Amino acid sequence: MTGRTAAKHEAETAGTAQAPVPDAGPVLPKRRRRVHPVIVIAAGAVLVVALTYMLPPFRNYQLATVGAYFCVTAGLTVLTGLNGQLSLGHGALMATGAYTLALTQNRWENLPLSFAMAVLVTTVVGAVIGLAAARLRGPYLAGLTLAVAIVVPSVTSTFDETFNSDQGLSVFLNPPPEQYPIEQWQAWLCWGAALVVVLLLALLVRGRFGRDLRAVRDDETAAKLAGINIARTQVLAFVVSAVCAGVSGALFAYLAQSVSPGAFPLTLSLFLVMAIVIGGLGSLFGALWGALLLVVLPALSQSVGEQTGSQRLEGNLALIVFGVVLVVVMLAAPGGLASIPSRMSRLIRRNR
Amino acid sequence: MSEFVYLTFDGLSRGLVYAAFALALVLIWRAARIVNFAQGAMAVSAVYVAYSVTNATGSYWLGFGAALLAGLALGVIVERVVMRFVDHSSPLNGVVVALGLVLIFQGVLGIVYGNEFLPFETPFSRDAFVVGGVAMLSRYDLFVFGTVGAVVIALTLLFTRTAVGLRMRAAAFAPDVSRLLGVSVGGMLTLGWALAAAVGSLAGILVVPTELGVHPTAMDVVFVSAFAAAVVGGLDSPIGAVVGGLIVGVLLSYVSGYIDVTVAPMAVLALLVVVLLGRPGGLFSSSKARVA
Fold first, then answer.
1. pLDDT at B174 over 90
2. Assigned CATH class of A2-169+177-351
3. What's residue B44's pLDDT?
4. Are residues B90 and A84, on separate chains, in Cβ contact within 8 Å?
């Protein structure tokens, strides 16, 4: 299947393009024929639509959640994996998108307009944070974006006439066309948005912009000598990834039909980092794995919690599993899950 | 006027706690060039140890001592088991691993103690003395002043007057040369982590009773404030961390007192932005470039 070969190929490139640790492997990957992203996305769309007809409603809802997460993990992958900027504030950017959707939707009840507004507002917010971020590196950037993530509940309670502090807002939605179950409709909408976002990202990253991103990540001085405007590249990367987070947040507001600061805690931002690190920094397919894990692991840990009858286990087991996986992956395979096949094949080749 | 005096003293007391926490960040930064994003979670774990010991024995001071010991132990464990093996070729790696540790600590604490605020009493009254109609300091504030002051003096003496302190500085400054001269660089690194974690735990046990109580995420905002303090002071400078802590504490106290408590995190963010963009090296840092 096309999806599989593309996944294999992505994994191959991830071996050399992975972010934090330059691998000791060959500098240039062997040139393989690259499947055009449009084909991969089209195949993905067919697969998703087929899935929505086969899955029971609750699974369709989970599928929709995966799609919503996929938007933000893909965007964060571009920022952190390809451009080397670590953001702990993407949960807050999701909150921005979600609140924008809620406020616009409750005033005008026009879903496309609300999504457009969510994109617009997160573009502006992303540009503001990105302008600051472009001047910061490593732990400084992480600390600043961490402060952004912490600020969400503070903003919602300070301006509580608009945001209704901890209770949050409910979102008025028109019901979907009658012939489709609501979960199926949700899955279509979320995956439609996710696939469009990822397609745009994939096209963007293939071209000159993607090369600029990587060049800036790997060696700023060399990139500057090659005529790349470093600050502009970094701000653009931040804006692009902020928009993805905004769309994702808006999708979550749509799915939950409500927004509250409790839905966007600091842990969410940490989970996102975990998702992209595990998926393999810099690979959009890795971002898909990350999004899948974000839905599957909490669900699993919840069912374990229910079985043991311990309420404390339910929410917290997922934290531990995420944390352990994150630490182990960072120590053992910094390229993430997506890099394991290429690492293995390299090992085998070396041993031969 | 009296409100101003009260807020200033309250801010100084709070600022000293941030200073201690920022000092912990600076200690690890100087030793290992890592900003320990797990510091808050480690400190909360130590505070939970204190909570358990205090509840079991009825003595605040046994809990206090247990927290410091737990801090030391956590520092050693985190450095020996995890941080030692982090690939330092990119500064992102250390941050990401520390974030993983945050999730682990918070998950374990949530399972053991539950995700609710548990009450934690102060050993001294928090009612301020009133001098000439003006509320000034409470006994607890004096306790905070004394404890953090003692720690700062002890650390200064350790680093400037003792052989171990010299070795620790050497190991951080020129690891290869120090190793050739017989300094156990790895051991010094572990010691640095242990000390830093203990100081962080001290800050935790001082600040938690003055807020809502113990909660797995109780130190998140404190961490950000202390990070801001460390950045204001320049991550490299212990004196800067103390001054930065006082600045942040007083600023937050004024913002909470004159505007609203909920605005405080926004004030921290604003301060961080201003300092990082205006004077990224901090007020006390000697180095010019801020690349790592």
1. no
2. mainly alpha
3. 94
4. yes
